[in-house]
């Protein structure tokens, strides 16, 4: 069982993006479109691989969003990333851990990027101990959807990808896992994810 973190075990930051855009009178989806344009080499990708610092990310993101129609400072986007933990998903993860190996692959930012996050760090730590192995993009300089990051997880857990289930809220990140033979679940809500997990595992999770 391999999980993404943000948007799977926490609520999606997309809701926060939309609120921010509405409050600032920005074009709808400008943040998501900036993230999606040139998604392997844009400011976001470089930051998640820890190739640039906060200052550079702030400037690059501003330039990329401006090219798509409205300037958004990278610094303003960072606080929007802190989703709320989904307790029902964490409870399911605890049950799954009792029977299966568990892993987490997360595209995250360098530890100091969002400033002080002590409260969040504590609850994230509580969830992270439920995994046999965690891969963080900012620590290894690789990010999803690079196929090597999935390969690394499979090798570390010593599992057959054909017997793995992978959950993510972004379709682009599910594709490499599916190509390796994993069963993939695109998470749109907790209820939907839990129903598909029950089907995949044969366990009662709700």
UniProtKB/TrEMBL annotation:
Record keywords: Acetylation, Hydrolase
Entry protein name: HAD family hydrolase
UniProt key word Hydrolase: yes
GO molecular function terms attached to this record: hydrolase activity
Annotated source species: Bradyrhizobium guangzhouense
Keyword Transport: no
Origin: domain of life: Bacteria
